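Hey, quick one: can you model this chain's 3D structure?
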Amino acid sequence: MARLDVLLSRNLGWSRKAAREAIAAGRVHPGESPAEVVVDGEVVRLWEQFHLALHKPVGCVTALRDARHPTAYTLLRGAPLEAELRPVGRLDLDTSGLLLWTTDGALVQRLTHPKRAVRRTYQAALARPFRAPPQDFALDDGHRPSIAALSPLDRGALHPALARPPEALAYATIELTGGAYHEVRRIFAALGSHVLALCRVSYGRLALPVDLPPGGYRAIDPGAV
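Sure thing. Here's the predicted structure for all 225 residues.
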């Protein structure tokens, strides 16, 4: 485990000097578990790393700061190690669903590197049914999306997080092993349809909890992704 003054600084937002002074003054005592201390009479959990799943709503961008739009980062206020959290990939402004955040840079690399081919599953509400992709399917810029699965979806199988616009005439699920810019929307456009609503429902082995409301988050075990 990291030094106590370092952990206090990271978890409480103190300077290293303030943490050392609090320890020297006897304000910090052992807690009931190795991961806890008591500071000025209050129990504090000391995290070395933290990982969470956010249900990103439509209307905010995956960024730490943005001059034009609300950011998903502002939804993490009060999370452990908040200042160190970074997104695993991104979801665009009009896409909702599962967005992972972690303080572990190596984990970000493992989950986003193309060679790892980590699967991302989306559900889409469509303006009309799509046609099957041809054998040599490519987008208009020559990009060949890595589609692991693609099929129509019955309404009864829709995730609660997916919006259901009244004009939607079809639904689909698509699984990709990459994450190019607006890729899902461009795929369905190339297949003769148009995405009205889009939600990422899983990343790797981790699914978006059906009871997690938009804007809500919960801690996760990175080994479950």
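One thing worth noting: The chain has three domains: 4-45, 51-113+205-224, 119-203.
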